[in-house]
From TrEMBL:
Transmembrane segments: none
Region called Disordered, residue ranges: 1-25
Tree of life domain: Bacteria
NCBIfam families reported in the protein's UniProt record: sensory_box (TIGR00229)
PANTHER family reported for this sequence: PROTEIN TWIN LOV 1
InterPro entries: HATPase_C_sf (IPR036890), PAC (IPR001610), PAS (IPR000014), PAS-assoc_C (IPR000700), PAS-like_dom_sf (IPR035965)
Keywords: Chromophore, Flavoprotein, FMN
SMART domains recorded: PAC, PAS
Official protein name in the record: PAS domain S-box-containing protein
Organism listed in the record: Jannaschia faecimaris
Length: 364
């Protein structure tokens, strides 16, 4: 069965033209609604209710390098206003010095910390922030990011042990997933610097996974698994929205496939890399083109993910995945963890990338 444009099953193939991000709001809402329900189309992507921040402790003054939409909503500060700044701008007159000292000591020692701290929104209003920080390490064990999970607390939540458990679970999940992504950066050279735009895209992809995870938790459905079909519909639509241009059409046929959380993370990240490559490289010097995505449950119980384009084709001197690039190494790492088979095919026009995941790697 396929997911209809209204979220039901059994309907026609989804088909919309990817447009640049500067179109008017009504056009954007129509395009998003092609793969999401109306509420999600209005709310947009990556709006997990828990704020997330990444900082770079290797740079001077440990500046912010990423925040999600929930952080912007919680604090009133836009992403562009905070990137490159230390998080101390959230502090104010009533922020306790002991809390600040504890935060600084945890960062200096490279350890986790959970703390309730008085912070201030952009308009000056105070709020109590449940903050969990944790180091993110690379393959060599070196700390290259600090993760902050944040949630404003109401009076009734101060002693809520279940809330802290959920936030800690999310922190552990993000640490694990970011470490997985960063393994692919271990061979980065000076000629191939870490691109923060690419890291932001990967974080946005993970955000959608965490939304699905938190939704399953809130409904008591996590033990039943994650609906991968619904998840990658949103991941793909987000990429088409951000990376599309006039003339490039996008279609998808996606079945409902329930998988475990680990598989949902790996497949979503892998799709993000492959689909991003298609939008960016498949149509060089071409005015029009088509990208198709299909997700199918196999008779033997596994799944097959296929990304097809009718563009210029994969150059004969390029292997896929290209292990000389960060994205290529990430694709290989993700596929290895799924025990999956990646098959690239050079067609008469364009490229087909097929991913087969065996049933045993998906079981809930």
């Amino acid at each position: 069965m396929t997911n209809d444009q209204d979220g039901t099953t059994g309907g026609p193939r989804q088909n919309f033209r990817a447009e640049p991000r500067h179109k008017e709001l009504d056009a954007t809402k129509r395009k998003l609604a092609a793969v999401m329900d109306e509420k999600d189309a209005i709310d947009g992507f990556s709006n997990a209710k828990v704020a997330m921040v990444l900082t770079d402790p290797r740079a001077d003054d440990n500046p912010i390098v990423y925040v999600n939409a929930a952080f912007e909503k919680m604090t009133g500060y836009s992403r562009s206003a905070v990137i490159g700044r230390n998080c101390r701008f959230l502090q104010g007159d009533e922020t306790r010095k002991t809390d600040v000292d504890n935060l600084r000591a945890a960062v200096n020692d490279g350890r986790d910390l959970s703390i309730d701290i008085q912070n201030y929104r952009a308009d000056g209003r105070p709020f109590v922030n449940r903050l969990i920080i944790a180091p993110i390490t690379d393959g060599n064990g070196d700390i290259i990011y600090y993760l902050g999970i944040q949630k404003p607390l109401h009076d009734t939540e101060r002693e809520d042990g279940e809330l802290n458990e959920k936030l800690s679970s999310l922190q552990s999940r993000v640490q694990e997933d970011l470490s997985l992504v960063l393994k692919s950066l271990g061979e980065t050279t000076e000629d191939e610097p870490l691109e923060f735009e690419a890291m932001t895209r990967r974080m946005e992809c993970l955000q959608l996974v965490y939304e699905a995870m938190l939704l399953s938790d809130s409904q008591g459905l996590r033990s039943r698994g994650i609906d991968l079909g619904a998840l990658i519909s949103r991941v793909a639509a987000s990429i088409a929205y951000e990376e599309g241009r006039p003339g490039i059409r996008y279609q998808q046929q996606i079945e409902s496939v329930v998988v475990n959380l680990e598989a949902s993370v790996r497949v979503s990240l892998l799709l993000s890399e492959v689909l991003f490559n298609a939008f960016h490289h498949a149509f060089d010097r071409l005015e029009e083109g088509l990208i198709e995505l299909r997700l199918t449950r196999l008779a033997a119980g596994g799944l097959r993910l296929v990304v097809t384009d009718d563009g210029v084709g994969l150059p004969s001197n390029i292997c896929f995945p290209d292990m000389t690039t960060i994205g290529g190494r990430l694709i290989a790492t993700l596929a290895d963890g799924l025990d999956a088979t990646i098959t690239p095919v050079r067609g008469a026009a364009g490229t087909v990338v097929m991913l087969d995941v065996p049933a045993g790697m998906m079981d809930v």
